[in-house]
Amino acid sequence: MTIKRITFVQEMLKFMGLEGRLHLEWISSAEAQKFARVVTDFTEKITHLGPSPIAGQTRSISMEPHENKRRKHEYHKAG
Description:
The chain is mainly alpha-helical. It has helices at 2-15, 32-49, 65-78.
């Protein structure tokens, strides 16, 4: 089930222009060196990809429920 979900999210990220920003790898707690290598490699990959191409283009979602309700109302009112 996890692989199916990760694959779905990877496809969604690809559609959004954020390909390569999600990685799943099974690592045992006994594999400290592998963990360090995977994290280092992924960090380098993300650094190479640079900032999100959609940074600043999305509206933030407030953690306050009343703010999200107001925005939803404004969206439906405008549409």
